[in-house]
Amino acid sequence: MNIPEHLRYTKDHEWISVQEDGTTALVGITDFAQSELGDIVFVETKPAGTSLDEHDAFGTVEAVKTVADLFAPVSCEILEVNEALDAAEIVNSDPYGDGWMVKVALKEPSQVDGLLNASAYRELVGE
Question: According to the UniProt entry, which residues carry N6-lipoyllysine (predicted)?
Fold first, then answer.
C-alpha cells in the first residue's frame, strides 16, 4: 500500500498536502480508502467558495457498492475542485496525484500538525 511520507492523514482516510506557500493544500482520499471502496464511479464535492470547519463533510465518493462521506481534515475554504474527477476512476489509479479532490485555503495552518504522519497512519491501517 502506498502511504507517502510527505503527507498528513486523518483517521477518516483523507490526506492533505500543504503547498509550498504554506497557506493552501490539496486534499484527497488515501490509497487504503480507495482500495476498500473498490471501483469509484462518482465523486461529488461542495463548490469552490465553501467554508468548512475541521471534520465537516465536503462531499461524497460513490463506489459500485457504497457511498462514503469526505471530511475536511482541517478548517479551510475550498478554492478549486479537481476537474479530472469527471473521470472518477482516476481516484483508484492515482489517489495521491491526479486523483486529488479539492484545493483549499487553510484557515489555521497549525491544525495540519495535529494530523497523523505516515508512520501513525500505517499503524492505523495495520500496515
Answer: 65
